[in-house]
Amino acid sequence: MATEAEKILSPKETGPILRHHLVEWCAAENDYYNIHYDDRAALEMGLASTPVQGTYKFALFGEMVRAWLKGRGRLLRISASYRKPDFEGASLRLGGEITGREDRVLTISLFLENGSGERTTTGQAVVRLNDDG
């Protein structure tokens, strides 16, 4: 099993997430739900501002795990649970910890924190290390 230091994925900082990032993500997904780029629509839905898409945060998890693997394995599964919205202008911190290992298959607990240190999104990834990894 890995040492305690090896069990922690290096934290990743991202942001601030600006309006153009949200609009670019809408285009990438071909999903133009207006709450992600229109303040008035977001306010009418009872939101504080334009929210960051859940799939955007999901993709951040995937990118963090991919970068951590550095070609030493492949992602088998990934999931996310959205606990609290993050909004335009947010700077986010992502992290993870290996919580299980069975042979070459690792389970990684993932989290995303807002600027106040609240975990707004949690998740899990399962990866399989290469035979030489």
From TrEMBL:
InterPro entries registered for this protein in UniProt = HotDog_dom_sf
Gene3D superfamilies the UniProt entry points to:
Hotdog Thioesterase
Q: What is this protein called?
A: MaoC-like domain-containing protein
> Which species is this record about?
Oryzicola mucosus
